[in-house]
Amino acid sequence: MKIPKVPRCLSPNVYPEVPEGGWGWAVAVAFFMVEVNTYGVLKTLGVFLEDLMREFKETNSRVSWVISISVFVFAFTAPLASMLSNRFGCRPVVMMGGFLMSLGMISSAFINGINEMYISIGIISGTRNSHKQHLVLST
To answer: How far is 20 from 41, CA to CA, in rounded Å?
Structure first.
């Protein structure tokens, strides 16, 4: 029986040895910090919920969709970030995630309506979260 060749971008990274000497704790601490920052940024929009409702003259439900879209995009693009990291390496993928985060946050400063916020924070900044999280998981 012949084993089919799997393209590199779809196959997992297999390491010959497990790192020793406390490296696992460093990865665990780094992952904790990434999670705190990732979800911290998403959840801080709740602090500004009333201000955003007043600014855009929208309901609580319409403003809350910003966070919901961002969390959905975050979860939906995580496998894509994993495949891109296997294909191109972690560094360029995380740099692209940082660029998307900056683009989404800077563009959100110039928006005029809640629909634009859905795109800037919900979609653009949501994609960067999965890229950032994958960096720690792949080290």
So the answer is: 33
Polymer length in residues for the chain: 139
Q: Helix, strand, coil: what percent of the chain each, to 5?
A: 75, 0, 25
State the angle between helix axes of 125-137 and 78-88 in degrees (0 to 180), rounded to the nearest 10: 60
Is the CB of residue 123 less than 8 Å from the CB of residue 105? no
Flag the least confident range among 11-15, 56-60, 87-91, 106-110: 11-15
**Cα 85 from Cα 94, distance rounded (Å):** 8
**Cβ neighbours of 93 (radius 10 Å):** 24
What is d(CA 36, CA 43) in angstroms, rounded to the nearest whole number? 10
Q: Report pTM.
A: 0.68
